[in-house]
Write a structure and sequence with these properties.
Number of helices: 3
Helix content: over 70%
Distance between the termini: 58 Å
Order of helices and strands: HHH
Largest sheet: none
Number of strands: 0
Radius of gyration: 17 Å
Strand content: under 5%
């Protein structure tokens, strides 16, 4: 197996991925793990029915995956497989993560200022 020594970004990029993943893990998974109740928690679908919460969870899992790719997998996987995984992560960001976040932000601020 060929060990990849390719750079997946500078130190600032890796630090950003780590901090973004840590932020999302703490603020999104902490309430789930410790069962901090939301007022409508017991209703149909609970907190999973809000697009804001779903978008935050998508961001959480995306940044965890990018962090794992940056620090662990890019040095363990062969270069061709690491490159394909990076392309998949880029496609997920461009196709799901970013559009969902833009939709939530514009809808929230649109409702807020109407």
């Amino acid at each position: 197996a060929v060990v990849s020594t390719q750079s997946t970004g500078g130190s600032a990029t890796k630090l950003f991925h780590f901090l973004a993943g840590l932020y999302h893990v703490y603020f999104m998974l902490y309430p789930i793990i410790w069962s901090i109740r939301h007022p409508n928690y017991e209703t149909y679908a609970g907190r999973w029915k809000t697009l804001t919460f779903l978008t935050c969870m998508i961001n959480c899992w995306y940044f965890i995956a990018v962090f794992l790719h940056d620090f662990l997998l890019s040095y363990v996987l062969p270069e061709s497989m690491s490159r394909k995984l990076k392309q998949l992560l880029d496609a997920l960001f461009g196709g799901i993560v970013c559009p969902a976040a833009i939709l939530v932000v514009t809808a929230f601020w649109g409702i807020c200022y109407v």
